[in-house]
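User: Let's play a game. I give you a shape written as tokens, and you guess the letters that built it. Ready? Here's round one.
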């Protein structure tokens, strides 16, 4: 049964796709579109065509699950070129998200009408690709190269109104009368010459002002660093102004094929499905009853408590925030308001939305005000006794059936649960600082955490715009547990003679936003410092004692100029060498390859141990954690996918070669070695 059907409305043929969940343009859909267009072309009583979709959205793109498999059925480009070739007007009726191939179908139609809530976009670059069905050639001819660049190179969708503004959409129609309005729109154009995007001339703006391409590269350099697809996308859009349509399509195909066969697209397609899989819990029934979260309580109005609260306020969920003293409470609320006002200044929120969000906030100094919360999250001092006291009080105060969550970044959730009579209600919600910005949410599942509680917070994560992954109870959960071997090796490497700036460079070149020593300078070397300059027990102590406490003092590991540009410092290098000598560590030159292997391979090993112990549901969850919580470069797919790409045998060989440097408590993962031996992968 084809997912495509056609319906006659007098002289207009409506071609309808019903291919849940998102009308992806799989082989059967493409074949159905070809048949539908051929039917319209072969019947003189049909004077116009409307193409629309049932369900939640217009075509949301090619079927990503088909990628990497032998192509079947008509290609998308072949299918949509037939639409454009028609002399009878073809109208795309758009709702939901017309994305990727879906937007290309719409571009091959002569006209596009959309409901106000619709979005249109070419997000292929987020999959490490560029549009592969002439989107990079038709779009600039309709809207111009300058308007096309952000859509193709950054890949974010635009609203129907914005699309109307730039000429991508011809009319905004009634939210509830899309089909009828589209049919009416088509009928009005029967007998008129049809406009074809491939013949458009708006793309000449890029020819008149070729500077727009370099300007775009310069403006987006940081965001696009390391990714291959954006540059290919810029070249494709530029070609649309310099070549004929046919030549341009060839150029697009060449660029597309190069990306499709590269490692970056495989990694980013892996991530697309990994992110969605992370939200699923394999051993919980899909119909597990959920708890209705109408009101949230947050304990602690510090940086974390304030940031956590903002996530719920921005999603329209009322928050009662509790502090011990009025002064801390007022300060915390002031910081939240300032954060919102800064967002509004950047135009990402209106002033009304700021007031709306802050209007949902109820400050209190009294636990009793949390009694009717459906979820309470504590973000108090990272100390087990303090947390157990808080949970004991919550247990006495908060209504039965509420979820009691800790924002702890490493403490044992099962032990915290013993402070209550309701361990099934207790779990971890580990937000990453700044909590209102970072996408990652580590959901820590205690031994007794209930299924409803867990399923509820996974759904809630999506509602507040977080990407959640479930971790078991172990020190550091998934992310911090894997960070610790990397930190340990970074410190060992500089003691053994590696230049600390080269340790940072290795991670920067790999694609991380920052290296560990840059990070330490940024955060401040004196975090947790005992403040006694005479007591020098670590390199940090020595640097702090020299008043080299990081960026804030103009010097830490690095020296900083007024613009906070860093340069390696001989003074810091000397401190390290003296320490090494004191500890009898023989220094030597260490190359970047050894640095890279010793920083990253132990992380993969730790990830394998996490899987072995059942502390993560799947390897791809570990990739999701590290990409969203720690800046692991998306275009490598995350630590576990990257290990698959370079070969698990390579990782094992590297770990064995450096075994004597990995610390006495290093444990080589059985799973890693057995998979490597069997030539298997994690994903
Ligand atoms: N192909 C296959 N499956 C897809 C899919 C796609 N394009 N998009 C979504 N799904 C599945 C998804 O895995 C999930 O499955 C379910 O649909 C709901 O998705 C030739 C080459 C449309 C905005 O990149 O951005 O066209 O987990 O959970 O949050 O030039 O899905 O339920 O089993 O994300 O409401 C370009 C990708 C492809 C769009 C909906 N298109 N999709 O978001 O639901 S490349 C895209 C999305 C291309 C052409 C090129 C989102 C969404 P399951 P969901 P959602």
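Assistant: Ready! My guess for every position:
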């Amino acid at each position: 049964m084809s997912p495509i059907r056609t319906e006659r409305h007098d002289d207009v043929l409506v071609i309808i796709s019903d291919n849940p969940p998102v009308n992806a343009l799989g082989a059967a859909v493409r074949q159905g579109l070809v048949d539908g267009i051929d039917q319209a072309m072969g019947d003189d009583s049909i004077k116009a065509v409307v193409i629309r979709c049932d369900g939640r959205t217009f075509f949301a793109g090619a079927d990503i699950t088909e990628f990497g498999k032998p192509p079947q059925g008509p290609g998308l480009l072949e299918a949509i070129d037939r639409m454009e070739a028609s002399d009878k007007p073809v109208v795309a009726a758009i709702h939901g998200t017309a994305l990727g191939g879906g937007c290309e179908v719409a571009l091959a139609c002569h006209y596009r009408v959309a409901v106000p809530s619709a979005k249109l976009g070419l997000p292929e670059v987020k999959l490490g690709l560029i549009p592969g069905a002439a989107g990079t050639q038709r779009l600039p001819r309709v809207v111009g190269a300058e308007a096309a660049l952000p859509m193709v190179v950054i890949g974010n969708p635009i609203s129907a109104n914005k699309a109307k503004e730039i000429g991508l959409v011809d009319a905004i129609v009634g939210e509830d009368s899309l089909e009828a309005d589209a049919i009416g729109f088509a009928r009005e154009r029967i007998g008129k010459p049809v406009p074809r995007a491939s013949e458009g001339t708006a793309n000449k703006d890029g020819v008149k002002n070729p500077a727009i391409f370099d300007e775009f590269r310069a403006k987006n350099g940081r965001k696009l660093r390391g990714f291959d697809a954006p540059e290919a996308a810029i070249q494709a859009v530029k070609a649309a102004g310099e070549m004929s349509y046919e030549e341009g399509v060839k150029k697009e195909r060449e660029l597309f094929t190069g990306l499709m066969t590269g490692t970056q697209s495989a990694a980013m397609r892996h991530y697309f499905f990994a992110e969605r899989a992370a939200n699923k819990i394999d051993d919980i029934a899909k119909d597990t009853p959920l708890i209705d979260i109408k009101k949230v309580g947050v304990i602690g109005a510090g940086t974390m408590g304030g940031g956590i609260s903002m996530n719920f306020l921005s999603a329209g969920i009322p928050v009662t925030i509790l502090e011990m003293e009025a002064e801390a409470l007022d300060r915390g609320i002031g910081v939240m308001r300032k954060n919102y006002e800064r967002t509004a200044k950047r135009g990402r929120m209106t002033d009304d939305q700021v007031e709306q969000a802050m209007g949902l906030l109820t400050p209190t100094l009294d636990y009793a005000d949390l009694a009717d919360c459906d979820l309470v999250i504590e973000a108090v001092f990272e100390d087990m006794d303090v947390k157990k006291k808080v949970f004991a009080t919550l247990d006495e105060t908060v209504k039965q059936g509420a979820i009691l969550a800790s924002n702890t970044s490493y403490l044992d959730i099962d032990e915290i649960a013993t402070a209550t009579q309701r361990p099934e209600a207790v779990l971890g919600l580990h937000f990453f600082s700044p909590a209102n910005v970072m996408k990652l949410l580590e959901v820590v599942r205690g031994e007794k955490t209930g299924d409803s509680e867990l399923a509820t917070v996974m759904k809630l994560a999506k509602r507040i715009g977080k990407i959640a992954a479930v971790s078991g109870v172990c020190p550091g959960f998934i992310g911090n547990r894997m960070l610790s071997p990397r930190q340990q090796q970074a410190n060992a490497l500089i003691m053994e003679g590696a230049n600390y700036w080269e340790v940072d460079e290795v991670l920067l070149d790999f694609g991380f936003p920052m290296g560990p020593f840059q990070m330490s300078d940024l955060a401040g070397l004196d975090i947790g410092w005992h403040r006694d300059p005479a007591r020098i027990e670590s390199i940090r102590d020595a640097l702090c004692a020299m008043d080299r406490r990081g960026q804030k003092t103009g010097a830490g590991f690095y020296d900083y100029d007024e613009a906070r540009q860093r340069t390696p410092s001989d003074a810091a290098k000397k401190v390290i060498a003296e320490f090494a000598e004191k500890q009898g560590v023989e220094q030597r030159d260490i190359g970047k390859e050894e640095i890279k292997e010793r920083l990253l391979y132990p992380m993969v090993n730790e990830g394998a141990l996490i899987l072995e112990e059942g502390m993560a549901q799947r390897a791809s969850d570990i990739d999701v954690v590290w990409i969203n919580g720690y800046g692991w470069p998306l275009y490598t797919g995350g630590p576990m996918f990257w290990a698959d790409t370079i070969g698990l045998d390579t990782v094992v060989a590297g770990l064995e070669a450096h075994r004597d440097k990995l610390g006495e408590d290093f444990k080589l993962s059985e799973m890693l070695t057995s998979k490597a031996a069997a030539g298997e992968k994690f994903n």
